[in-house]
Amino acid sequence: MSVLAAALAEVAPTADRLSRLSQRAYQNPYAVDWPSTVEPEADWFGSPEYVSLFGTPAWSELDEKGRRRLAFHEAAGFYSLNIHGEKSLMQGLAARLYRSDLTEFTGYLHHFLDEENKHSVYFGGFCTRYARVHRARQLAFTADRPRDVADFLFFAQTMIFEEIVDHYNRVQARDRRLHPLARFINDSHHRDEARHLAFGRQLVGALWAAGAPWPQEAEIRADLDRFFTITWRDFYHPDVYADAGIADPWEVADAAWSAPAQRAHRRRVSDKCLRVLTAAGVLTEEPTDAF
Fold it and tell me: Which candidate, 229, 231, 190, 184, places its Cα nearest to that of 81?
């Protein structure tokens, strides 16, 4: 039995329960009442405290319209980040569908895959109607890994990405200052992600325990350290700043990444994910390059 199959056997009751919840919570992603136009300088499309320049000198230099305009373009950047992340996630899930050692778990993987595709419909619908889909900046890991290591890294990286994104979703779904469409997209994503995270947290811990001791332990931790950093780095996107009319976007991105307020923000948002990985024994220290 593979490490993944052994871990999935442990979380099978959770997967069955989540499959039933997914069936009951199904939403039609094509039934959204999209506004014909939006006003980026009149409405908030992202919580100002979660804009990547918040707490930096560049934020202080913007007037109220400029801050709202930046929040709008950062919403498009955030949704684009999700589009690219979920595209990789869907590819990874599809590659594991009907694998001979995983057939009894195919049901929940189908729900997982279906819901990620639905999320892309929401995110892509916003970006293509009102802004654009920003290019991906993440570099894929090209090193060959044994299958058990590749399985672990796939689900661990998925959990990291979804933990960070879901924190933003939860905050912005409840923020009454935001345009109703922004609240709806964040809330819809959060409702599904809550199930994915319940599955992912348990699975990552079970995977790590099932494969212990890992001969590649140092390499796995190094990969996760890099993944934390490149995931967070995408939140400081020069193309987003350029679209918002900010001069010297590359310099602004570098300055924002290093700003003390933003370093503290990244650590705070990452806290729950880091505690899950530390409690499972996956990480022994925080990925300092990200913070």
Answer: 231
- For 51, residues 6+ apart whose C-beta sits below 8 A from its C-beta are 59, 67, 70, 71, 74
Question: Which residues on neighbouring strands pair with residue 44, listed in sequence order?
Answer: 178
**pLDDT at res. 15:** 80
Give residue 17's pLDDT: 86
Residue with tokens 């939140």: 235
Hey, where are the domains in the chain? Answer: 3-290
Question: What is the pLDDT at residue 136?
Answer: 84
Dihedral (CA of 134, 159, 122, 65) sign: negative
Per CATH, the number for 3-290 is: 1.10.620.20
Tokens 């595709």 — which residue?
Answer: 117
pLDDT score of 226 more than 70: yes
Tell me what pLDDT residue 159 has. Answer: 95
Mean pLDDT taken over the chain: 92
The separation between the first and the last C-alpha atoms of the chain, rounded to the nearest angstrom, is 38
The CB density around residue 124, as the number of other CB atoms within 10 Å, is 17
Is the distance from CB of 224 to CB of 282 less than 8 angstroms?
A: yes
